[in-house]
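Encode chain A's predicted structure.
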Amino acid sequence: MRIETLKKAGLGAAATVASLLAMAGGAYAATKDPLNSGDTAWMITSSALVLMMTIPGLGLFYGGMVRKKNVLATLAQSFGATCLITVLWMIIGYSIAFTPNPSASTNAWIGGFAYLFLKPMGLNAVSSLAGTIPESVYMFFQMTFAIITPALIAGALADRMKFSAFLWFMGLWLLLVYCPIAHWVWGGGWLGTMGALDYAGGTVVHLNAGTAALVTCLVLGKRIGLGTENMSPHNLVLSVIGASLLWVGWFGFNAGSAVTAGYNAGMAAAATQIATAAAALGWMFAEWLIAKKPSVLGMISGAVAGLVAITPASGFVDPVGALIIGIAAGVVCYSSAVWLKKAIGYDDSLDAWGVHGVGGALGAMMTGAFASNAINSAGKGWLIDGNGHQMLIQFYDVGGVFVYCGIVTFIILKVIDMIVGLRVSPEVEVEGLDINLHGETVHD
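Encoded structure for chain A:
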């Protein structure tokens, strides 16, 4: 009897200890900080890499391809856009792109205004969209995407747009085009809900910017002297350096979009490298075959085309898919940037539409074809996994972005033209934008 009593007492004590341990574990779990220092460090690094893509990467890439009298004006566009968009993103851009709209009826189209001036963002706030990094870091990462997207448009308006009009255009386009489309795909909007696959911005960034570039160059008209004057790049060394910085920075763009320092980031980085190299070769051999010489400008343009095309697919495809996408991007974008532009006759100065617009659309469609469940459960590929419906969703993604961006961009440009004017005078264009708009020259 005494032994039985002791057994019961022992079991009761053990149960009590177990209960206390469970309560302590539960309390620890409830208060455990979800922040992951590895993910946070990687995302800060990725944000810095993407920022480097705009200044100095894009600035040097575009700056080397314009004529010497317009180099500083081209660099000023990248630098000025970076500064302006940073402030606008902080004030309102992040809020309408990534925070929920209280009205359920409009949440599919645009976000809310709860994060104006980022006021609700506290020091210890963890991003609800990322989960393991501070919200401030996620906001900063998305800011760098918002910066480079409008800046890409500058490639189509080189040599002829007023700097004041450019700044107005950058600000209005960010708020009226980029932020809504980012919300559609990444912020809980209708395209993301439908299942559109855009890992790092094939449609949100590149097709979006490329479409705006096409509309802008059509509204502005051709440069004075196009076809009769020498408009060759003044310094391709700068463009090669810029393209190289873009290539390196793009690992932050694509691998950073995993928002973790894990398996998906590694595969996205590998896919990015493979596709970029394949596209550079694809463009080079196509040009070699048709123009009889492989130009340096062609090789770096091909590399950028590969970076663009793999952007929506980088976290969804395997290395073979990346190789195929890269080769296709090099050949198709070469045809668009060189042959199609000459055939139609529009003046896309630095091939922003031919590389970013065409490359972004191609990459988005090929993402639907080669996305693999073995890489990411969100990807249900057509050729690989037998889901042809994904191609239709990708088509809706491409078509929706192209139509909305084209219409709203046209309206923005026409309004700015009525208020401040878009294009510099013929005298300023002939003499050069550097001395007339900024009072400086490359060589004093």
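The CA atoms of residues 285 and 294 lie 7 Å apart.
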